[in-house]
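To whoever is on call:

I kicked off a structure prediction for a single chain this morning and the downstream step that reads the tokens threw a length-mismatch warning. I double-checked the sequence; it's 108 residues and nothing unusual in it as far as I can see. Pasting both halves so you can look.
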Amino acid sequence: MRILCPLLLCLAACASPDRAYWGAEETPITIENREYRVYHRPGEARPRVQVIRMGYARRPEHVAILGAMRVAAETVTGCAMIEGSAEGDSGVMNFRMRCPSGGATPES
């Protein structure tokens, strides 16, 4: 029981954004039957975005998940990822985005 409680707390924390994204807008999105949470601040000219994968993924799925995380960030913000800006892994990924004039606007 002592091991189970800390493990559950760690798993619960996985769905929370990094401190840099506290107060950012959270947008859930489903891509290929997998859920993600995208954290962003609409209206920024060059927003930083954090995408968190929800749920367990087996090792063979990780490459596809990385691509889906990029799609999630671009779909939610309406911006393009700046090549070479991705940092993270298939659980949590951070991107810098390049938006058309007027800044990011979330998809309705």
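Update from on-call: the warning came from a stale cache, not from the record. Cleared it. Sanity check on the structure: The longest strand covers residues 25-31.
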